[in-house]
Amino acid sequence: MKSLNALVKIWIVFLVSVGGIGCLSQVIPEVARDKKLLDYATAQNGATVIASMGTPGHRVQSMIDSTHDGIEYSITSTSTPGHDAATAINGIASSENWDKGEGWEVQFERIHGYNPFLNPFDDNIPGESQGCAWIEVHFPERKRVNRIVIHTLDSSEYPASKFGIYSGLLRVWREKRWETLGRIKTGKIEYRTQASYGKPAGGKIEFRFSPMKITKVQFVVYRSNDRKVVDRTFGSVIEKSTARIVEIEVTGNESADTISQPPESPALDTEGYPDF
């Protein structure tokens, strides 16, 4: 055993002498990745949540009046009882308890441009005023983060292919303004890096980026996989979608020392509505 230890020491000295110690530095980060990272987006760690369309204790965005193609519409939205936004920051990312009230759910309507001779649905109509659902997580202070995960409903009974997100947008609050990090378009992730571009948006929608300090995360849903047309004219279509978010996860390089049970009733924020 002594001879083995001596050989190891000699090998390390050799690596340092030839500049090969960088090989060891490549191993250390891999080991660190195995540790559980601290999730800033939990009530346990001080995060709060607000959401559109019926979050208890907040104003209700229940109707949006809009005009498109010369026709006035009333875009309605309703939250689902028992699926409160607070459950999206309780640290539970599994979809198994969905029928017991786990996760946030809301129905909403959105106007789409329609041309039977061209693309039947046009997602390029600007602004959330055409209809959407949104959920925000606020941190008690600025957090240095490099990864955000949106966990949508995805189980054997409720697969993401039928109940996930088809079109959406991820923003962060940085330097006193919203900054877009990525989006979901036609069921695929579009982001800055080629590696994530075009990746299917399943039950775990993951965004990785260079570390940055932020105070809020906002996820906007324009269309879900669970949607249907409820009205149409020659130039427009109104779709009803149901957005379902099980958990929002936000991490940096900080490791969690202990794993605790999530609280039962996280507090909700009363300020900071999105500047739509």
CATH superfamily of the largest domain: Galactose-binding domain-like
Helix content: 10-25%
* Number of H- or I-type helical stretches: 3
Task: Give a count of the beta strands, DSSP E runs of length 2 or more.
Answer: 12
Alpha carbon gyration radius: 22 Å
Distance between the termini: 67 Å
Structure description:
With 276 residues, the chain is mainly beta. The chain has 2 domains: 1-34; 36-251, Galactose-binding domain-like (Jelly Rolls), CATH 2.60.120.260. It contains 3 helices and 12 strands. Strands 1, 2, 3, 4, 5, 6, 7, 8, 9, 10, 11 and 12 form a 12-stranded antiparallel beta sheet that branches. The longest helix is centred in the N-terminal third of the chain and has 16 residues, at 2-17. The radius of gyration is 22 Å and the shape is globular. It starts with a helix and ends in a 25-residue tail after the last strand. The relative contact order is 0.22. Residues 12-33, 54-77, 119-126 and 258-276 have low confidence and may be disordered.
What is the topology?
Layout: H1 2-17, H2 22-33, E1 48-51, E2 63-68, E3 71-79, E4 104-113, E5 133-152, H3 160-163, E6 165-174, E7 177-185, E8 188-190, E9 199-200, E10 204-224, E11 227-232, E12 236-251
Antiparallel strand pairs: 1-5, 2-3, 3-4, 4-12, 5-10, 5-12, 6-7, 6-10, 7-8, 8-9, 11-12
Describe the structure concisely.
By secondary structure, the protein is mainly beta. The chain has helices spanning 2-17, 22-33, 160-163; strands at 48-51, 63-68, 71-79, 104-113, 133-152, 165-174, 177-185, 188-190, 199-200, 204-224, 227-232, 236-251.
